[in-house]
Amino acid sequence: MDVFLILTFVAGFIFLIKGANLLVTGSSSLAKNFGVSDLFIGLTIVAFGTSAPELIVNINAAIRGGTDIGIGNILGSNITNIFLILGISSLVVPLVVKLETIRLEIPLSLLAVVLLWFMVSDGVLSRFDGLIFVLLFLAFLSLLFRRSRRTVNFGKFKTSKAYSKKYSIFMILAGLVGLFFGGEWLVSSSIELAKLFGISDAVIGLTVIAFGTTLPEMAASLTAVYKRKKDIAVGNVVGSNIFNIFFILGLAGLIRPITVSNDLLNGVMAVIFATLMLLASLFVGKKYVLEKWQGVYFVITYLVYVIYIFYVVVG
User: Fold this and answer.
1) What number of H helices and E strands is found in the chain?
2) CB 125 within 8 A of CB 246
3) For 109, which of 164, 231, 241, 306 is 20 to 30 Å away at the CA?
4) What fold does the segment set 3-313 form as a domain?
5) Mean per-residue pLDDT over the chain, rounded
């Protein structure tokens, strides 16, 4: 086994996650220095920051031609977000889901992945498909801002404290450097490790990289649960899933058309199943609540999924 490849892989994860954290903290602090509202920070900078690892991995993979890793990372991240992150979060405390999330965000995340299925059923996500996704993301973002002005109390959304402008800029630059090198090392070492172990790029993206790049979402959701902001925990996951497909896959498709393997087509179906299971769970048992026993099923389903990928798909 190549020890250097393993070290590069681990270092890539560390730089990627730490870089995202520094970018969010520094950007939030700088925005506060310029008097930007907490709500604006939360809807833009923090939302982007928690999905930055997936974005960097996909852009890097698209440029390198390792498209299976990129799209596999997105699909695996969405599955991990629902089954593992929401599952663990609901084990800590039952998650009450707002009606507007059930009526808008969850159906929209389902629409996104169903639309993805139709787009890639011919085996390719084209540049035109990518453009449609980016335009849909901009429409979603516009809707989100319009709705937030009507329904959200600015005083209740708190982000990190403000540091000096110079230190804030330093954190932003350090975060960008961490994201760049972390993404570079993670993708390059993943491709080599996949070849070394005879595992497809798609499987690596669907499992190992997907788990690593969802760590910011996991941290955000568990922090929200700890602070009893349970609606934020669910909104963070569902919003991230929409962001991943519409914006990140859309942008990757614009950079280079993405060839989709059979493993990835199965991954799309798995995301559809996960989203439907999340929606159905909110109408079983206590209405509009993801209960602890459902969290157990979610976590078990995730473990079964990972075992299936490695022992059935890989063989």
Assistant:
1) 16, 4
2) no
3) 306
4) A middle domain of Talin 1 (1.20.1420)
5) 81
